[in-house]
Amino acid sequence: MRVFRLILLIKAVFGLATFVALMVLVGGGVAWFFPRAVPTVAVGLLVFVPWVERRLGRWHLAVVLGLDVLVESVESAIVYYNATTFWSGMAMPHATNLSAGQFAPMQSFFLLIPVVLLAWGYGRRGALLGSTWTTVLLLVVGLVALRGGLFTPPYVLSVALPAVLLFTVPFLVSVLAERERRQHDELEAAYEGLRRHTATVEQLAVSRERNRLARDLHDTLAHSLAAIAVQLEALRTLLKHDPVEAEQSVAGLVDLARRGLDESRQAIQELRGDPLDTMGLEGALRELLAAVEARTGLAAEVQVTGTEPDLTLDESRTLYRIAEEALLNVERHAAASRVRVYVHSAKTGLRMGIVDDGLGFDAEAKHGGHFGLTGMRERAAIIGATLEVSSAPGRGTEVWCSLVR
């Protein structure tokens, strides 16, 4: 509708310019030009008045365009008759032989506009109805005028020739419009599918993050709270039978609670900031080993060999968390004096190992949820890596994570 409003404004400007040109050329006698402006003004009111659009609803465009075709059809006859009579009465040699075909192109152009808009708005059906309606009106007006002796047969011929355009151009426009609508619908469907896919990916990301948080809490706070709960149950019995040992147990509980608090603070700090973002995997591991060494007194070192690892952020973060959990096990259970982290990377993948010289354990007997091994295996599986644990009593422990490309 905005396009049609613009076209009406252009027609109004064109009509005013034509009237001014006639006034300048002939100095008057063009009063016949005014009546043709009245129907155009009426159609313009139908377009620009909001009440009419609200009243007609979805049929507003069709009604307005149909009326515009009717107005243009009648105007074409009026312009031809009055203009021919006017110019023939002038003392102008070139005007006496004025043919109807000289008026047809401009009028056909104005008739073509609403029909094209009908084709664009209503498809092939709108194009067919608009073209038929326009051609029939032109022929009816011409034949009625011809029977009344107002026009000559060339006028009817001048109407028949543009009728070819009135059918061809709107039909082509309707085909393009339908193709554009079909492409628009396909884009809408693709956008909706992409939106659903994005929502699914977001939900999966949230679910993975929740699982990661659950593993972190299990590996830190849950262990400490479970140990405190067990020792408190034992303390209840000790208070009745051995107050001295009970007091020692209280001291151990305080120490355990403090360690749990430190682990919780560490986990919260890790959630706030990811060292991998700034230092990469090697730098983050070196910082982690330095913190373990400062906290426990263990001799800790990192050995990196091979090429620079080409890892995604998720892969680097997962490997870092596995190393962190393994080092926490060394700190809690191994009673080791030395721990090393080995990282060897190549084009085919990466292999990381955490090796200590502590007490060790029976790897075949200790499985499932012991020492957080389940959480480490789950982390490794997420990135397509494998986790191997090798240990024996008195021989230390080795945890190896292999990521193959």
Characterize the structure shown.
With 405 residues, this protein is α+β, with helices and mostly antiparallel strands. The chain folds into two domains: 193 residues, no CATH class; 127 residues, Heat Shock Protein 90. It is built from eleven helices and five strands. About 5% of the residues have low confidence.
Q: Topology of this structure?
A:
Layout: H1 2-26, H2 37-48, H3 50-56, H4 60-88, H5 93-96, H6 104-147, H7 153-241, H8 243-272, H9 276-296, E1 299-306, H10 313-334, E2 338-346, E3 349-356, H11 373-382, E4 386-391, E5 397-404
Parallel strand pairs: 1-2
Antiparallel strand pairs: 2-3, 3-5, 4-5
Helix pairs in contact: 1-2, 2-4, 4-6, 6-7, 7-8, 9-10, 10-11
Structural class: alpha+beta
Number of domains: 2
Percent helix, as a range, is over 70%
Give the helix tally: 11
Shape: rod-shaped
Radius of gyration: 45 Å
Question: pLDDT under 50 segments (min length 5)?
Answer: 84-105
What's a concise summary of this model?
72% of the residues lie in helices and 10% in strands. It has 11 helices and 5 strands, in the order H-H-H-H-H-H-H-H-H-E-H-E-E-H-E-E. Helix 7 packs antiparallel against helix 8 and helix 9 runs parallel beside helix 10.
